[in-house]
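Example record

One chain of 508 residues, shown exactly as stored in the release files.
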Amino acid sequence: MAEKKNSGRCYLVGAGPGDLGLVTLRAKECIQKAEVIVYDYLCNPEMLNWAPEAAARIFAGKKAGAHTLTQEEIDALLVQKTGEGKQVVRLKGGDPFLFGRGGEEAQALARAGLLFEIVPGITSAIAGPAYAGIPVTHRGSNSHVTFFTGHEDPAKSESSIDFSALAKLGGTQVMLMGVERIAAISQEMLANGMRPDLPVALVRWATTGRQQTLVGDLQNIAQRVVERDFSAPAVAIFGEVVKLRGELNWFEGRPLAGKRIVVTRSRTQAGVLTEQLQILGADVIELPTIRIEPPTDLRAFAELVQDAHVYDWIVFTSPNGVNAFFDLFYKLYNDAREIGGAKIAVIGPATAQRVKDFRLHVDLQPDKFVAEALVSEFKKQGGVENVRILLARAEKARDVLPKELSAMGGIVDEGLAYRTVPETRDDNGARSRLLAEGADMITFTSSSTVENFLALGLPWPEGLLVASIGPITSQTARDFGLNVDVEARRHDVPGLVDAIRNFYKRRP
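Predicted structure tokens for this chain:
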């Protein structure tokens, strides 16, 4: 190998089969330190959220009939960026060395005398069958498995796949990238002695909420693909182990399996809702409509935070307000005791939990997660006459709290802790996916998510249902002419998830 020229390094990283939970820790570490990321079509775009804000993101997607960059251009790009001394991450679906052309890219880097590292990933050849309830080996069925590709180099004069050898080998055979050629491949298998009733399964978009499985046998699978319009990307499994799916299909029977749900929360907050929906089997499209930013007058808010110790109560109405307050507080002070004797009131369990994360006690939390309920709780406690209150909240929020507490004689200072602005970026292609595929339901977790989603001007997908986190958000949706199909009884994320689950449980 030639002498290495500089400190640049290229990481050829297996991005796994699609489920973020199947990405290796090493892969995530590489992404978090990347200066340049070159990623493929089959990589889960949510992985890009782990990268530094300044990292360059280059899509090199390749799918049937459409290449953004040729393989030669990708090789040259990796060599160029690594040669510039950059930390480059090449994200490849599955494992880079299993039919991923990672070997060719590594050779290009080696020939250029550049440093590189291989980060193996979980391949869809094993994960896809597993998520469809099909073990690729089973003591009672077979003791070996063969992997082959259905998409060979078109420059080759003839196939290098020895179908007669495959027939003699038996066991389980797993094919990647060949669903569009399933008719020709199944005919070759039949012509070389494989039995017509050999069980076959195709798993599409394996390990994701979009997963679909088609089962047949060698004789009829091609016809079933045509009838179901079953297209790539898919992995094919041939063998007796396919029969175990009836007993072991754990993934596709979850409560929200087959439901595509849009999450409109800010990018930093979407994760909790997304995760809970995905656990129930939903295919989630994260389409943030708002972004949390510092307030217009950060200095004014900082002055209030600096004087937090003079207040009798500090009121938080959202986790964002808690974050903004303590981000500034701990820049000003090193000791939590500097907050003085102020008691803390919150709206909602998520806000309460965020306060507790800072090792502070919540003194007042109403059962209902709206401003009116907090006002009622203060009244029950004897009112707030001549009580100094710091209210940390968003700009342009409802004025119920400052008006009502002031009317009760409270001395209220409004600390505008943050602002919500429309999210203009679409880093993961969620908008185009929503337009192309539609969705079953869209979730709104605040009035601003409703307003900003509609401001995008996207066509409303046919049959799209609306799920709201609570009455205030629901009213905003209705004011814009939307029908609210689901409203959470508990006005928080777990309550919203429960409401969605119960809705589909009741619905035929």
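Notes: The chain has four domains: 9-122, 126-248, 260-289+423-506, 293-422.
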